[in-house]
Amino acid sequence: MHKRISIAARTLALIGGLVAGGAAISAGAADVTPPEPVAAAAPAKTDWRFQATIYGWLSGVSGDVGVRGVGPVGIDISPGQAISDLDGALMGSFGGFTDQFIFLTDFMLTKVSSDGQIRDSAFNYDYSQTQITVQGLVGYMLPLGMPQLQLAPTVGFRYQNLSADLGVSPAFLPVTYDDGGTVQWIDPTIGLYGHYDFNDRWFVTALGDVGGFGVGSNFTWQAFGAVGYNWSKTISTSIGYRAIYEDYESGGFVYDTTQQGAFVGLGIHW
């Protein structure tokens, strides 16, 4: 009898120990602070900076033009003459920039007229044109590791809409042969954009491209360079030089010319 009681006592003591041990383990687990959840990394923020520019381009035109079989004749309107020969103009551009990407758009509407004697001949000409030029490009900023320098290869297009009238007359006869019409074409372009900040005020910007390749015109190129000054975080001005060459010929139209001259611009940034 005494032996049975001893066995029972030991059994109860073992069960009690297990219960107490389980309770201690539960209490210990309850005291352990669970690890803080790891927050997902926020996606990198891409900050776009924008610029709208209004500008004036004192552009001369030189080269050969022909309209539906009349001509071609050589014209040469110097940048100085462009003031008196310019009948109207509207110009502006808009662009956006990040640390990786760039896009630029440009719009020009010009109307010019000129007359004079055809080079090395006894004929006079009377020429007028209204031209709409729309350009666009996108580029990728090269990772140069130089915050003050931006360099980006670009791809884009240049759209031309040209309405022209050309009259040719012998200098010794009151007879004029004239014709007019409108043509339009789009050129693909590839190029390079560059921008360098000397400090927080002074900067230079450059752009060059080539294109056409027989898609629209036979060949086209553009060169642009400017020095600018930031008056504030939102206002800048610039002065520079720009040239655009077009070699287009189709359906009796000939437009093999270079437009070039100085320009000034006012930029608004945000």
Spell out the key features of this protein.
270 residues; 2 helices; 11 strands; 14% helix; elongated; disordered N terminus
Write the topology of this structure:
Elements: H1 2-31, E1 49-67, E2 70-77, H2 79-85, E3 86-97, E4 101-117, E5 123-140, E6 149-170, E7 177-197, E8 202-211, E9 219-230, E10 235-250, E11 253-269
Antiparallel strand pairs: 1-2, 1-3, 1-11, 3-4, 4-5, 5-6, 6-7, 7-8, 8-9, 9-10, 10-11
Descriptive report:
It is a single chain. With 270 residues, the protein is mainly beta. It has a single domain, classed as OMPT-like (Lipocalin, Beta Barrel), CATH 2.40.128. It contains 2 helices and 11 strands, in the order αββαβββββββββ. Strands 1-3-4-5-6-7-8-9-10-11 form a 10-stranded antiparallel barrel. It is elongated, with a radius of gyration of 37 Å. The N terminus is likely disordered.
Lateral strand order in the biggest sheet: 1-3-4-5-6-7-8-9-10-11
Count the beta strands: 11
Mean pLDDT: 83
Our count of helices gives: 2
Would you identify the regions where 5 or more consecutive residues have pLDDT less than 50? 1-34
User: In the CATH scheme, what's the topology name?
Assistant: Lipocalin
Structural class by helix and strand composition: mainly beta
